[in-house]
Amino acid sequence: MQITSDFDGGNIAVLEAKTPGNIRLEIARDNQSDFYQWFYFRLSGAKGQPVVMHMENAGGSAYAEGWQDYRAVAASDGETWERVDTEYDGATLTIRHTPGADAVHYAYFVPYSMRRHADLVARAAASPLVSHRVLGKTLDGRDMDLLSISSGQASAPLNIWFIARQHPGETMAEWWMEGFLDRILDADDPVSRALLGRCNFYIIPNMNPDGSARGHLRTNAAGMNLNREWNAPSMEKSPEVFLTRAAMHETGVDFHMDVHGDEVLPYNFIAGFEGVPGVTDRQLALLNAYTAKLAALSPDFQTLHGYPPDKPGSADMRKCTDYVAENFACLAMTLEMPFKDNADLPEPLAGWSPARCRLLARSCIDALHAIIDDLK
Ligand SMILES: [Zn+2]
Predict the structure, then answer these.
(1) Which residues pair with 188 in a beta bridge?
(2) Catalytic residue list contains 240
(3) How far is the CA of 166 from the centre of ligand 1 (A)?
(4) Which of 35, 169, 249, 351 is 20 to 30 A from 281 in CA distance terms?
(5) pLDDT in tens, 220-239
(6) Which residues of 206-228 are buried (b: 16+ CB within 10 A; e: fewer)?
């Protein structure tokens, strides 16, 4: 019996793995950081044996309350992920499973590999509507990929930005991107065609490739939380934000969405920018219009549960959404998806899943279409 996380996105430390009934594990911290919660590893050689795996440091993780009612995902074929029996006692997270094969992967949420990212970028870039630009390099030397999508038909186009996975362990954000890109590049889709007649799109499917490859929850290679870098990014510590911010100032921004996952809340929701100093009634009206429209379009989205809005003047200007709303006087939003499930419409076998991320992205495109006339 062996356990390894020595692969793209892997994360686990093995304390003891001698007997299947008592495997002792720890989740490793993000490099130069105290954050940890993402795990992803392979168990080999335990086919047909009931295994009990304890993550003994779960209680000290970044969002320990997120383990309540949480179930891990497992796949025997590297592709078909299902939820498995998981329990949390306030300190240790315990997974119980009888592997159906001799190589089973376990993870916090369905992983999104760098190989799949490269394929997604290549597939999108093959469209005649897309130009692909490498904005620059990350600290580990990876490319920051920007996809620009334009039909060339729009006069005075609106500039629409979508970015995902500032927090690399929130892999649901890149599954969402897959659904988004597949639909917006569908030459037969009337909503996408109509939007491309009015807008140019700028898409960064993965804001944190180093953290993704390293198996981090929340930070880049230097331990920086990218969603606290927007007021003063640097090429030394946070080139991902420095380069993206510069590209936004080149194009201007009329609409922005930053796609994330939330460890604790079992809902899809949107966080806004209510606390930024320059907030306008127009921006707030657009925020309400967009979220109401999305809730009407998708039973997987709601507006009842979420983060309490910041009080006037109390925004954290290091956050992407607040920075963009303030500096571009536009509608900017943070979309949060659950690690667990949508409690309003649970799906017991898969929980919140890649397929549902993709479908929510499609509804987000419909909601944008519904408010597009109000953006300028
Ligand atoms: Zn996040």
Answers:
(1) none
(2) no
(3) 7
(4) 249
(5) 999 999 999 999 999 999 99
(6) bbbbbbbbbbbbbbbbbbbbbbb
